[in-house]
């Protein structure tokens, strides 16, 4: 990256000054090493977002940022509806509410040698994964519409989980304002048999162990101790979310001139928050969020059933569930004034600090759990939100390691079977239906997640709490 375009404000904060059509400055949170490796398109996309109407305070990129469609992945921006603010399908992304859910199991790492192989095989058989994967749940359109309005609450009401699960899900498992009527028939058809499935790409289900604790007080509040065995699920809204993104990218592009919007690139398509297109998108996107929350809830039910068969002493309970790829209506204090804003987080997670009434009572004094997925075969992390993050970037943090290499490039350099062998020699069992998928997701195709976590921590976006190492990974 050409650092001449940046001004270093502190060790992990770089500013892009306002130029041209930019309405606010840009900020990239990253260490020097991450900045050196970051592609130039991140700067361009941060600038483009900073030029959108109604943007507030700044256009932000998280330490795992890389090029995306419209917004960079790892991009954060907030818009004020009272100042002509917009909502952007590109600012949410195609995998609406892709996110991470982490579960306690009540097991310890020293119990896993006797269980690991059987759990790996059972989860691989039970959890549908891969391109176009379908599940045992077959829904009618009417029942799917109930999912789109009810989210994880619908899943619990229909026997997929426990009522207490909902306290530990962002938005208590259901986002209000969803309207299935704004979701196209094609999007609904794509989802009728995809509930309770992982999908492909970087999605996974992983058994992990807590290897290191950085903040004992916060870890205790989260119920974490060295050697604890956890399960993390990373997936989203599947075909429905992708189709919503596709449909509204076209609609927003077509309506741009009507609303006087000069799009700097097609994928930055957007619409005023108070326009008919903007309102329709928000209603459809919220339906997509609920779809993802229900999907992860059903997968949790399948995990419970699997562990009950193989490890009946296990007790599966939620630590937390949160999404990236969203636009949420939130209140934030800007220059001493509380304002209602629409915060886009694309490949970024919410990271609220202590005191928020929306957090479960167990976590309110330490801040929100921030779940950071690593790459296949590398560490994941649990962090905690901070008050400073709310001042810096609307309470936002990174969501993972971030790609350093495209999928095609990764398949040219890596072979799935070789990766399986290397990880097995490290004691990590991989189960996948696609050798090509494993090659695409090679650990070397991603940034150093440890470097990303350190930059996130030092910048004040979230603080390190625990490091998790993989034992079993199920992928598409």
Task: Give the name of the CATH architecture.
Answer: Alpha-Beta Complex
Structural class: alpha+beta
Low-confidence stretches: none
Largest sheet: 8 strands, mixed
- As a whole number of angstroms, the C-alpha radius of gyration is 21 Å
- Beta-strand residue percentage: 25-35%
Number of strands: 19
| CATH superfamily label | tRNA-splicing ligase RtcB
Count helical runs: 13
Helix content class = 25-40%
Mass-distribution shape: globular
Overall pLDDT score: 94
N-to-C terminal Cα separation, in Å? Answer: 33 Å
Using the coordinates shown, work out and report the CATH topology.
Answer: tRNA-splicing ligase RtcB
**CATH top level class name:** Alpha Beta
Number of domains: 1
Provide a concise account of the structure shown.
It contains 13 helices and 19 strands. It has helices at residues 32-37, 41-50, 116-126, 141-157, 185-191, 216-222, 238-255, 276-310, 387-393, 407-413, 416-425, 435-440, 449-459, and strands at 7-10, 13-16, 26-29, 55-66, 73-79, 86-88, 99-108, 204-213, 228-235, 270-272, 317-323, 326-334, 337-346, 349-350, 369-372, 380-385, 396-397, 429-432, 462-475.
